[in-house]
Amino acid sequence: MSGGDKAFEEKLIGIIKAEFPEEKKVYFNNIAAENYKLTAENVHKLKHKISILGLEKSYETAVAFENNLIEGNTKLQEEFESILTIMTNYLQQL
To answer: What is the pLDDT of residue 2?
Structure first.
């Protein structure tokens, strides 16, 4: 995506690092409230960050989980939340 442009990469990572914690918090609030429509919207936003970070299989999981939520099904929740943990750890190391 960046074509090797380090300044662009750093700016993009900076945006992700700034937005991700709040988006993750909103996701957890909505899933706890069993508001699956809003949770699906949260997953939709988060899956773009997953894609930007190059996590292809994780992106596929996010797409499937989003579709499940739209149907009121929380199947893949544990897998998705594991992806959020991986992203959190990765972003903290940058």
So the answer is: 61
How many Cα atoms sit within 13 Å of 8 on the Cβ side? 6
Mean pLDDT by 10 residues, the chain (94 residues): 79 95 98 98 97 95 98 98 97 92
Spans of all domains in the chain? 6-93
Q: How far apart are CA 49 and CA 72, in angstroms?
A: 23
Reference 63, options 52, 84, 48; nearest CA is 48
Q: Which of 74, 55, 52 is nearest to 65 (CA)?
A: 74
Strand (E) or helix (H) holding 4? none
Locus of tokens 């069993």: 34
Name residue, tokens 């959020």.
84
Residues 6+ apart with CB under 8 A from 20: 46, 49, 87, 88, 91
Residue 25, φ and ψ in degrees, nearest 5 = -60, -45
